[in-house]
Specification:
This protein has three domains: 114 residues, 4-hydroxy-3-methylbut-2-enyl diphosphate reductase, catalytic domain (Cobalt-precorrin-4 Transmethylase, domain 1); 104 residues, Rossmann fold; 84 residues, 3-Layer(aba) Sandwich (Cobalt-precorrin-4 Transmethylase, domain 1), CATH 3.40.1010. It has eleven helices and twelve strands. The chain is flat. The strands form three sheets. It has a five-stranded parallel sheet, sandwiched between helices. By secondary structure, the protein is an alpha/beta fold. β9, α9 and β10 form a beta-alpha-beta unit.
Protein backbone atom coordinates (compact mmCIF):
# COMPACT_ATOMS: atom_id res chain seq x y z
CA UNK A 1 0.00 0.00 0.00
CA UNK A 2 1.41 3.35 -1.03
CA UNK A 3 1.97 5.75 1.86
CA UNK A 4 0.63 9.28 1.45
CA UNK A 5 3.24 11.81 0.48
CA UNK A 6 4.56 14.13 3.15
CA UNK A 7 4.32 17.89 2.66
CA UNK A 8 7.38 19.50 1.14
CA UNK A 9 8.59 20.54 4.59
CA UNK A 10 8.75 16.85 5.61
CA UNK A 11 6.32 17.24 8.50
CA UNK A 12 3.16 15.25 9.09
CA UNK A 13 -0.09 17.15 8.72
CA UNK A 14 -2.06 17.98 11.84
CA UNK A 15 -5.05 20.16 12.62
CA UNK A 16 -5.00 22.14 15.84
CA UNK A 17 -8.58 22.91 16.86
CA UNK A 18 -8.35 26.10 18.91
CA UNK A 19 -11.25 26.98 21.20
CA UNK A 20 -12.74 30.38 21.77
CA UNK A 21 -13.44 31.75 24.29
CA UNK A 22 -10.47 30.52 26.29
CA UNK A 23 -8.01 31.86 28.85
CA UNK A 24 -8.42 34.86 31.13
CA UNK A 25 -11.91 35.75 32.30
CA UNK A 26 -12.89 39.22 33.48
CA UNK A 27 -12.44 38.32 37.16
CA UNK A 28 -8.91 37.00 36.67
CA UNK A 29 -7.99 39.95 34.47
CA UNK A 30 -9.24 42.36 37.16
CA UNK A 31 -7.31 40.61 39.95
CA UNK A 32 -4.01 40.74 38.04
CA UNK A 33 -4.63 44.39 37.15
CA UNK A 34 -5.13 45.16 40.84
CA UNK A 35 -1.69 43.77 41.73
CA UNK A 36 0.05 45.57 38.86
CA UNK A 37 -1.71 48.87 39.62
CA UNK A 38 -0.97 48.55 43.34
CA UNK A 39 2.73 48.01 42.60
CA UNK A 40 2.66 51.10 40.41
CA UNK A 41 0.86 53.25 42.99
CA UNK A 42 2.51 52.08 46.23
CA UNK A 43 5.79 50.64 44.94
CA UNK A 44 7.13 47.22 45.94
CA UNK A 45 6.65 45.22 47.96
CA UNK A 46 2.95 44.60 47.64
CA UNK A 47 1.78 41.58 49.61
CA UNK A 48 -0.71 39.06 48.22
CA UNK A 49 -2.51 36.54 50.42
CA UNK A 50 -2.41 33.20 48.56
CA UNK A 51 -1.99 32.96 44.79
CA UNK A 52 -3.82 35.88 43.20
CA UNK A 53 -5.01 33.36 40.56
CA UNK A 54 -4.08 29.72 40.07
CA UNK A 55 -1.31 30.04 37.51
CA UNK A 56 2.42 29.70 38.10
CA UNK A 57 3.38 31.87 35.10
CA UNK A 58 1.26 34.75 36.41
CA UNK A 59 2.46 34.38 40.01
CA UNK A 60 6.13 34.28 39.01
CA UNK A 61 5.65 37.28 36.72
CA UNK A 62 4.15 39.29 39.58
CA UNK A 63 6.89 38.18 41.96
CA UNK A 64 9.45 39.52 39.50
CA UNK A 65 7.68 42.88 39.68
CA UNK A 66 7.78 43.02 43.47
CA UNK A 67 4.73 41.10 44.69
CA UNK A 68 5.29 38.99 47.81
CA UNK A 69 2.94 36.04 48.22
CA UNK A 70 2.07 34.88 51.75
CA UNK A 71 -0.16 32.15 53.12
CA UNK A 72 -1.45 34.14 56.07
CA UNK A 73 -1.46 37.77 57.16
CA UNK A 74 0.74 37.17 60.20
CA UNK A 75 3.65 36.52 57.82
CA UNK A 76 3.59 40.20 56.81
CA UNK A 77 5.91 42.46 58.84
CA UNK A 78 4.59 45.76 60.24
CA UNK A 79 4.14 47.88 57.12
CA UNK A 80 2.15 50.59 55.40
CA UNK A 81 2.29 48.62 52.15
CA UNK A 82 -0.98 47.03 50.98
CA UNK A 83 -1.99 43.39 51.07
CA UNK A 84 -4.26 42.04 48.34
CA UNK A 85 -6.79 39.24 48.74
CA UNK A 86 -7.00 36.75 45.88
CA UNK A 87 -9.70 36.47 43.23
CA UNK A 88 -11.10 33.36 44.95
CA UNK A 89 -12.47 35.32 47.89
CA UNK A 90 -11.75 35.09 51.61
CA UNK A 91 -13.68 34.37 54.82
CA UNK A 92 -14.95 37.41 56.73
CA UNK A 93 -12.31 36.73 59.36
CA UNK A 94 -9.50 37.70 56.95
CA UNK A 95 -10.35 41.42 56.48
CA UNK A 96 -11.20 41.56 60.18
CA UNK A 97 -7.73 40.24 60.96
CA UNK A 98 -6.18 42.73 58.53
CA UNK A 99 -7.87 45.57 60.39
CA UNK A 100 -6.68 44.18 63.71
CA UNK A 101 -3.11 44.15 62.34
CA UNK A 102 -3.58 47.69 60.99
CA UNK A 103 -2.94 46.54 57.42
CA UNK A 104 -4.13 48.38 54.34
CA UNK A 105 -5.93 45.78 52.21
CA UNK A 106 -7.36 45.61 48.71
CA UNK A 107 -9.93 42.92 47.96
CA UNK A 108 -9.49 41.38 44.49
CA UNK A 109 -12.33 38.87 44.95
CA UNK A 110 -14.04 38.23 41.61
CA UNK A 111 -17.39 40.07 41.55
CA UNK A 112 -19.09 36.80 40.57
CA UNK A 113 -17.67 35.09 43.66
CA UNK A 114 -18.83 38.04 45.75
CA UNK A 115 -22.29 37.48 44.26
CA UNK A 116 -22.24 33.89 45.56
CA UNK A 117 -21.29 35.23 49.01
CA UNK A 118 -24.31 37.55 48.90
CA UNK A 119 -26.61 34.74 47.79
CA UNK A 120 -25.45 32.58 50.72
CA UNK A 121 -25.99 35.47 53.12
CA UNK A 122 -29.47 36.05 51.67
CA UNK A 123 -30.43 32.41 52.29
CA UNK A 124 -29.17 32.74 55.86
CA UNK A 125 -31.14 35.92 56.47
CA UNK A 126 -34.28 34.09 55.35
CA UNK A 127 -33.67 31.39 57.94
CA UNK A 128 -32.39 28.74 55.53
CA UNK A 129 -29.58 26.28 56.06
CA UNK A 130 -27.16 26.77 53.17
CA UNK A 131 -25.95 23.92 50.98
CA UNK A 132 -22.77 24.79 49.09
CA UNK A 133 -22.03 22.58 46.09
CA UNK A 134 -18.27 22.60 45.64
CA UNK A 135 -14.91 21.00 46.34
CA UNK A 136 -13.54 20.77 49.88
CA UNK A 137 -10.44 22.85 50.50
CA UNK A 138 -10.75 25.03 47.41
CA UNK A 139 -10.08 28.68 48.37
CA UNK A 140 -13.40 29.78 46.94
CA UNK A 141 -15.27 27.23 49.04
CA UNK A 142 -13.33 28.22 52.16
CA UNK A 143 -14.17 31.86 51.47
CA UNK A 144 -17.86 31.23 50.87
CA UNK A 145 -18.29 29.05 53.96
CA UNK A 146 -16.49 31.74 55.95
CA UNK A 147 -19.18 34.31 55.19
CA UNK A 148 -21.54 32.69 57.68
CA UNK A 149 -21.34 31.34 61.25
CA UNK A 150 -19.96 27.86 61.83
CA UNK A 151 -22.60 25.22 61.14
CA UNK A 152 -24.69 27.45 58.86
CA UNK A 153 -23.31 25.87 55.66
CA UNK A 154 -23.00 22.23 54.61
CA UNK A 155 -20.64 21.32 51.76
CA UNK A 156 -22.07 18.97 49.12
CA UNK A 157 -19.37 17.52 46.84
CA UNK A 158 -21.11 14.57 45.17
CA UNK A 159 -24.48 13.02 44.40
CA UNK A 160 -23.84 10.65 47.31
CA UNK A 161 -23.47 13.65 49.61
CA UNK A 162 -26.77 14.98 48.30
CA UNK A 163 -28.40 11.60 48.91
CA UNK A 164 -27.09 11.27 52.47
CA UNK A 165 -27.70 14.83 53.67
CA UNK A 166 -30.24 15.09 56.49
CA UNK A 167 -32.12 18.38 56.49
CA UNK A 168 -33.58 17.64 59.94
CA UNK A 169 -36.66 19.67 59.06
CA UNK A 170 -34.70 22.84 58.29
CA UNK A 171 -35.60 25.06 55.30
CA UNK A 172 -32.81 24.91 52.71
CA UNK A 173 -31.17 27.09 50.10
CA UNK A 174 -28.20 26.33 47.87
CA UNK A 175 -25.33 28.06 46.10
CA UNK A 176 -22.46 26.61 44.07
CA UNK A 177 -18.78 27.18 43.55
CA UNK A 178 -18.37 29.25 40.38
CA UNK A 179 -15.88 26.93 38.64
CA UNK A 180 -17.70 23.59 38.69
CA UNK A 181 -18.64 21.28 35.84
CA UNK A 182 -22.06 22.39 34.66
CA UNK A 183 -23.15 18.79 34.01
CA UNK A 184 -21.91 17.42 37.35
CA UNK A 185 -23.57 20.25 39.22
CA UNK A 186 -26.85 19.71 37.40
CA UNK A 187 -26.92 16.07 38.53
CA UNK A 188 -26.26 17.02 42.16
CA UNK A 189 -28.91 19.74 42.12
CA UNK A 190 -31.42 17.35 40.55
CA UNK A 191 -30.83 14.94 43.43
CA UNK A 192 -31.33 17.72 45.98
CA UNK A 193 -34.53 18.90 44.30
CA UNK A 194 -35.91 15.37 44.22
CA UNK A 195 -35.31 15.01 47.96
CA UNK A 196 -36.18 18.58 49.01
CA UNK A 197 -38.80 20.01 46.67
CA UNK A 198 -38.89 23.36 48.47
CA UNK A 199 -35.12 24.01 48.40
CA UNK A 200 -34.56 27.65 47.47
CA UNK A 201 -32.51 28.53 44.38
CA UNK A 202 -30.06 31.42 44.46
CA UNK A 203 -31.43 34.60 42.94
CA UNK A 204 -28.90 34.26 40.08
CA UNK A 205 -26.85 31.46 38.52
CA UNK A 206 -23.78 30.66 40.64
CA UNK A 207 -21.54 28.99 38.04
CA UNK A 208 -19.92 31.91 36.25
CA UNK A 209 -20.39 32.79 32.59
CA UNK A 210 -16.72 32.15 31.78
CA UNK A 211 -16.76 28.63 33.24
CA UNK A 212 -19.91 27.81 31.28
CA UNK A 213 -18.61 29.33 28.04
CA UNK A 214 -15.30 27.46 28.18
CA UNK A 215 -17.03 24.17 28.91
CA UNK A 216 -19.53 24.62 26.08
CA UNK A 217 -16.89 25.29 23.42
CA UNK A 218 -14.81 22.31 24.60
CA UNK A 219 -17.93 20.14 24.22
CA UNK A 220 -18.29 21.47 20.68
CA UNK A 221 -14.64 20.92 19.78
CA UNK A 222 -13.95 17.53 21.38
CA UNK A 223 -15.66 15.14 18.91
CA UNK A 224 -13.24 13.96 16.24
CA UNK A 225 -10.09 14.86 18.16
CA UNK A 226 -7.40 12.35 19.06
CA UNK A 227 -6.14 14.44 21.99
CA UNK A 228 -7.38 17.47 23.87
CA UNK A 229 -5.00 19.81 25.70
CA UNK A 230 -6.13 22.23 28.39
CA UNK A 231 -3.68 24.92 29.44
CA UNK A 232 -3.93 25.47 33.18
CA UNK A 233 -2.46 24.81 36.59
CA UNK A 234 -2.99 21.56 38.52
CA UNK A 235 -4.72 23.50 41.32
CA UNK A 236 -7.06 25.33 38.93
CA UNK A 237 -10.56 23.94 39.42
CA UNK A 238 -12.02 25.35 36.21
CA UNK A 239 -9.09 24.00 34.15
CA UNK A 240 -9.40 20.51 35.61
CA UNK A 241 -13.11 20.51 34.86
CA UNK A 242 -12.32 21.29 31.20
CA UNK A 243 -10.24 18.11 30.99
CA UNK A 244 -13.22 16.12 32.30
CA UNK A 245 -15.58 17.85 29.87
CA UNK A 246 -13.32 17.05 26.89
CA UNK A 247 -13.22 13.36 27.81
CA UNK A 248 -16.98 13.14 28.28
CA UNK A 249 -17.61 14.96 25.00
CA UNK A 250 -15.66 12.45 22.94
CA UNK A 251 -11.94 13.15 23.16
CA UNK A 252 -10.23 9.76 23.74
CA UNK A 253 -7.37 11.48 25.56
CA UNK A 254 -7.20 14.80 27.39
CA UNK A 255 -4.44 16.35 29.48
CA UNK A 256 -3.86 19.38 31.65
CA UNK A 257 -0.61 21.12 30.67
CA UNK A 258 1.11 24.23 31.99
CA UNK A 259 3.15 24.76 28.84
CA UNK A 260 4.61 23.09 25.78
CA UNK A 261 7.10 21.12 27.91
CA UNK A 262 4.22 19.23 29.57
CA UNK A 263 2.68 17.97 26.32
CA UNK A 264 2.89 14.16 25.92
CA UNK A 265 4.44 14.43 22.45
CA UNK A 266 5.11 10.69 22.29
CA UNK A 267 1.36 10.06 22.42
CA UNK A 268 0.64 12.37 19.50
CA UNK A 269 1.83 9.86 16.93
CA UNK A 270 1.62 10.72 13.21
CA UNK A 271 -1.44 9.39 11.41
CA UNK A 272 -0.63 10.11 7.77
CA UNK A 273 -3.48 7.99 6.43
CA UNK A 274 -6.19 10.19 7.92
CA UNK A 275 -4.47 13.13 9.55
CA UNK A 276 -4.99 14.09 13.15
CA UNK A 277 -6.96 16.71 15.08
CA UNK A 278 -5.78 17.98 18.48
CA UNK A 279 -8.05 20.20 20.55
CA UNK A 280 -6.61 23.13 22.50
CA UNK A 281 -8.19 25.39 25.10
CA UNK A 282 -7.16 27.21 28.28
CA UNK A 283 -8.63 27.64 31.72
CA UNK A 284 -9.79 31.03 32.96
CA UNK A 285 -6.51 31.75 34.79
CA UNK A 286 -4.14 30.81 31.92
CA UNK A 287 -2.56 33.68 29.92
CA UNK A 288 -2.70 33.66 26.15
CA UNK A 289 1.10 33.66 25.86
CA UNK A 290 1.10 30.02 27.03
CA UNK A 291 -1.39 29.10 24.30
CA UNK A 292 0.78 30.86 21.74
CA UNK A 293 3.82 28.93 22.98
CA UNK A 294 1.98 25.64 22.45
CA UNK A 295 0.78 26.61 18.97
CA UNK A 296 4.40 27.46 18.05
CA UNK A 297 5.57 24.09 19.44
CA UNK A 298 3.07 22.24 17.26
CA UNK A 299 4.16 24.18 14.20
CA UNK A 300 7.77 23.21 14.88
CA UNK A 301 6.86 19.52 14.92
CA UNK A 302 3.98 19.27 12.44
CA UNK A 303 2.60 20.85 9.32
CA UNK A 304 -0.10 22.35 11.55
CA UNK A 305 -3.31 23.98 10.38
CA UNK A 306 -5.32 26.08 12.84
CA UNK A 307 -9.04 25.42 12.94
CA UNK A 308 -11.17 27.67 15.14
CA UNK A 309 -14.01 26.36 17.29
CA UNK A 310 -15.87 29.38 18.61
CA UNK A 311 -19.18 29.86 20.36
CA UNK A 312 -19.64 33.28 21.96
CA UNK A 313 -17.67 36.50 22.21
CA UNK A 314 -16.95 37.65 25.74
CA UNK A 315 -16.88 41.39 26.36
CA UNK A 316 -17.36 41.53 30.15
CA UNK A 317 -15.10 43.95 32.01
CA UNK A 318 -14.94 44.27 35.80
CA UNK A 319 -13.49 47.63 36.92
CA UNK A 320 -10.86 47.83 39.64
CA UNK A 321 -11.57 49.58 42.94
CA UNK A 322 -11.76 53.37 42.97
CA UNK A 323 -8.41 53.94 44.72
CA UNK A 324 -6.53 52.33 41.81
CA UNK A 325 -8.34 54.03 38.96
CA UNK A 326 -6.30 56.59 37.09
CA UNK A 327 -2.94 54.97 37.90
CA UNK A 328 -0.87 55.16 34.71
CA UNK A 329 0.87 52.08 33.35
CA UNK A 330 3.80 51.96 30.95
CA UNK A 331 4.14 49.78 27.86
CA UNK A 332 5.87 46.98 29.80
CA UNK A 333 2.99 46.89 32.30
CA UNK A 334 0.46 46.74 29.49
CA UNK A 335 2.39 43.99 27.72
CA UNK A 336 2.36 41.91 30.90
CA UNK A 337 -1.38 42.43 31.39
CA UNK A 338 -2.10 41.54 27.78
CA UNK A 339 0.20 38.49 27.92
Amino acid sequence: MRRPELPKNGKQRLTLRLCGPRGFCAGVDRAIQIVVLALKKYGPPVYVRHEIVHNRFVVEGLQARGAVFVKELDEIPPTRQPVIFSAHGVPKSVPQNAERLNLLYLDATCPLVSKVHKQAQRHFRHGRHVLLVGHAGHPEVVGTMGQLPAGAVTLIETEDDALRFDAAGRPLGYVTQTTLSVDDTAAILEMLRQRFSDIADPAAESICYATTNRQEVVKLAAPGTSHFLIVGAPNSSNSRRLVEVALRAGAPRAALVQGAADIPWHEIAPRPEKGQVVGLSAGASAPEILVEEIVAAFRERFDATIELAETVTENEVFPVMRELRGVELNSADMAFLNG
